[in-house]
Amino acid sequence: AKAHQRSSHSYFTVDMGVEIRERVRMMHALRAAFENERLFVVYQPQIDMRTQSPVGAEALLRWKNEEGQFVPPDQFIPIAEYSGLIVDIGEWVLRSACFELIHLHNLGFTDFKMAVNVSQAQFSHPLFLQSLERALTDTRAPANCLELEITESMAMNDPEMLIKTLHHIKQLGVQISIDDFGTGFSSLSHLQKLNVDKLKIDRAFVNEINDKSGEGSIAKMIVQLSQSLNIKVIAEGVETKLQADTLMGFGCHLAQGYLYARPKTQLDLRAWLAQGPDH
Ligand code: C2E
Ligand code: CA
Ligand code: CA
Ligand code: CA
């Protein structure tokens, strides 16, 4: 029994050691990339499906490592969150997105909206509101064209803090949307109290809309919920015409997905917008 114990103990130690070392390595590499300005932001257009015209974009972070490979955000964002790096990186993404927003407005796309992802650690940081206000005043981006995407789980961790912070954000005129809606089990009474502007249907529920079976009953339910709460709704990960038509049938008119556009560098986005939606 003793031998067995020792071997299982060393097994876990080795395994965890490797994982922790890998995480620490990635954290150092990420910090270096941030400091050496090797992170960048891409923008995925959001579309009004009825007119096929772009109405805004979501800012998404990209990291190309020393070997020239893209590290997926799903891998490095958790490390940025865990290490606290997300506070500085997130502020930089927010400022970059605000600068791009005002640039697009100056090019004549005056109603264009910009959505930015905000992590829990960023949101609950005591200086978050200050950095948000500073981003708006420094860039002169209009607050009502900026939208912050938060997740449902943030509503569950500390509802009091969240409600207070959201109140300040709304006073600035900045919009709030709930990202990946439906994946986080937040209560409906919560949702009403939070007074958000938009729900974002997670890609997983859009994916269920296909020829084989699923009529997208969860997506439909979220659209109906948004209608009864009188808030906006957008679907992410729309890849097929069937999905677009089905969502429009439900009453969801906003979409983001490969059917319309992949995330684009800032120069590609400007060129794409200048060409118009039919090109
Ligand atoms: P998310 O916020 O749910 O972002 C949507 C993800 O779906 C993006 O992946 C986008 O490229 C992808 N996507 C959009 N349309 C389609 C489609 O039609 N098909 C498929 N298969 N995928 C589609 P990405 O850029 O890899 O980002 C992954 C996640 O990383 C994001 O999920 C978000 O949670 C996080 N993230 C990205 N940038 C930031 C950031 O600046 N700050 C924070 N806190 N998180 C970020
Ligand atoms: Ca998002
Ligand atoms: Ca999302
Ligand atoms: Ca998602």
TrEMBL record:
Domain EAL: from-to ranges: 23-277
Record-given protein name: EAL domain-containing protein
Superkingdom of the organism of origin: Bacteria
Residue window of the full protein shown: 470 to 748 of 752
